[in-house]
Each structure stands twice: as structure tokens, then as C-alpha cells.
Amino acid sequence: MNGRDGSGERAGSGVFDRRRRHFEDFAVGDTVLSPGRTVDIGDISAFAGLTGDHYPLHVNEEYGRSTRFGGRIAHAPLTFALAVGEIALTGFLGDAVIAFLECQGLRALAPVRPGDTVRVRAEVAAAEPGGRPTHGTVRLDYTVLNQKDEEVMTFRMVLLARRRPER
């Protein structure tokens, strides 16, 4: 149940899937690709309101035009949050995750602009059983791509996953 098709990549359905999954269901190299989501001004404004991050680069078009970006761009934490949500919506993780442990090496590589469509590829980089028989650690490499297939963000998620019960 590694979710692979002939290409080694599983396309996400876009509908949250809480199917039963366990640590043992994740093999190094398993990959999923989300269907994508277009980021709009409303997303950026809502994120600014939710977080209190009203930095002018994100909320002021005139200010944004005076920068190297030539206009408003999405907050990097918004891009991160969308990436996490996109993979959750694919159902790839099912209900296996017990806890988020860490985000490693987050790099914002290019701006996400209003009107950009982002999709996310996540690949299992490591699956470590750990010291307890009840859970293991899954490390997923996330790559966020825009509509031009340019990498706009990368990071590694470290998640605690439920192990299959012994019978």
C-alpha cells in the first residue's frame, strides 16, 4: 500500500482521506503530488489578519511595486501552511500521523504571487522505527512548485506516525 503508480508518483485526489495508515505503509521514495491551489489576494489578506503580520510587502501593492518583487507577494509562512494542507488533502498520510515533530531546512526559493497556482510534491526521505513499538518517525521532503514548475519552497517535515499493532 505504498500509493505508487507506474511513475512512482501518486496524484492526490484533492479530497481529505482519513483511511487507516500506519508507519509501515511509508517506504523511502514513496511520492505524492497534490492537485494544486491558486493563491489570491484574499488568501494573503486573510493570512495577514489571522497572524497580525501586516508587513507592507504582503498587504500594500504600492509598497510591493517599489521592491525587487514588483508587487505584493504571499507570506512565506502562508506558502508553508498551504503546502502542508495540500498534502493533507491528498490523503497520502491518512490517519497515521500522531504528531508534528519538526520542520527542517525550510527555504523560500522564489516568491508566490497573487494568481500563482502552487502544488506540492512530498517524498518519503526516511522512515525510522524508533525505540517504542507504538510509533515511528517519518521524514517527508516537500517541494512547492508554481504553475511554471519552478520550485518556490522546500522543507523537510518530521512526523510521528502510528505503527501497526502487533497481532
Please provide a written account of the structure:
It is a single chain. The chain has 167 residues and is an alpha+beta fold. It has helices at residues 41-51, 56-59, 61-65, 76-90, and strands at residues 9-11, 31-33, 37-38, 97-108, 117-128, 135-145, 151-162. Strands 1, 2, 3, 4, 5, 6 and 7 form a seven-stranded mixed beta sheet that branches. Strand 6 (135-145) and strand 7 form a beta hairpin. The radius of gyration is 17 Å and the shape is elongated. The chain starts with 8 loop residues before the first strand and ends in a 5-residue tail after the last strand. Mean pLDDT is 90; it is low at 1-10.
Amino- and carboxy-terminal Cα gap: 19 Å
The rounded Rg comes to 17 Å
Task: Count up the helices.
Answer: 4
Based on DSSP secondary structure assignment, what is the total number of beta strands? 7
Strand content: 25-35%
Structural class: alpha+beta
Which segments are poorly predicted (pLDDT under 50) over 5 or more consecutive residues? 1-10
Secondary-structure element string: EEEHHHHEEEE
Question: Which overall shape is indicated by the principal axes computed on the Cα atoms?
Answer: elongated
Helix content: 10-25%
Largest sheet: 7 strands, mixed
Mean pLDDT: 90
Furnish the topology, listing elements before pairings.
Elements: E1 9-11, E2 31-33, E3 37-38, H1 41-51, H2 56-59, H3 61-65, H4 76-90, E4 97-108, E5 117-128, E6 135-145, E7 151-162
Question: What keyword list fits this structure?
Answer:
167 residues; alpha+beta; seven-stranded mixed sheet; 7 strands; disordered N terminus
